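Holo prediction. Input below; ligand is adenosine-5'-triphosphate.
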Amino acid sequence: MTDLIDIAGVTHAYRTDAGPLPVLRDLDIAVPEGGFAAVVGPSGCGKSTLTRLIAGLMRPDRGEVRLHGEPVRSPRATVGMAFQNPVLLEWRTILDNVVLPLEIVPNKLSRRQREDRARELLALVGLAGFEDKRPSELSGGMRQRASLCRALVHKPEVLILDEPFGALDAFTREDLWQTMHALRAEQPFTAVLITHDLRESIFLADEIFVLSGRPATVQHRMRVPDTGPRTLDDLYTPEAARMLNVLRHQIQIAQGREAPEDRQPQTSTPPAPTPDPAPGQRATPATLPERMP
Ligand SMILES: Nc1ncnc2c1ncn2[C@@H]1O[C@H](COP(=O)(O)OP(=O)(O)OP(=O)(O)O)[C@@H](O)[C@H]1O
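Structure of the complex:
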């Protein structure tokens, strides 16, 4: 089966006054239909650049980004995006902000149907009753919920999330992680999440890609086991601690703070579960996964 998102051998440099700035190098990432990929890596390594390439806002110097096997050469209506700072239009109500993509993307829905769709999503994220408010009347977390509704209202098949929860406090962030699962259950989509939060990556993603320092390539891949619906408690199991340890170690390598044992891309699945520690006993730190060929 063809992966829905296929980033194949992507290399890109920005042209700057000081000369070319290589940002991505031979990057390969594939996301199957309905998959949720998280991309983590050191600050400035090229994660947002990757989202611009997937969204078709830029084209790579070398390699290709393909959706359903078709090279992406320009922005597509089938891709939705949400960013750290939700840019909601203050002169429109929350409902009208969410409806906006349906006014831009060609569709056969009546005004009433568009609003119904927006209302459904707003209710799903807990914003029923706030449809007529202006963005400035909402908290940061509520604005981000509205922004997620706007990104999904036209039922895009791909959702790009560039640190959408980065500016929120820890409790609101955890709330929104659960909202993401609810949205995904209501309307399946294929997602790429850029994040600095390793717990967020294991809570939301099926597969995590750790990028190296710039020019970034995939340094490590980790599959998150599918154990059914996730709850926040799953983040406090010994398995979660092991995954976080592996990821943290990989980020340190990417930052150049640890000696790279191997610069080749590695893959890990979490080690086999061990029994939960006895009450009062701490989970043991993970041992690093063995290198894969
Ligand atoms: N339009 C541009 N022109 C020139 N350089 C750019 C441009 N956009 C980004 N860069 C540079 O490319 C590098 C990668 O930027 P990018 O925003 O993709 O990184 P990032 O991994 O998303 O960073 P962060 O984690 O800090 O958000 C950075 O050094 C940045 O300064």
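Residues 273-293 have pLDDT under 50 and may be disordered. That is the main takeaway for now.
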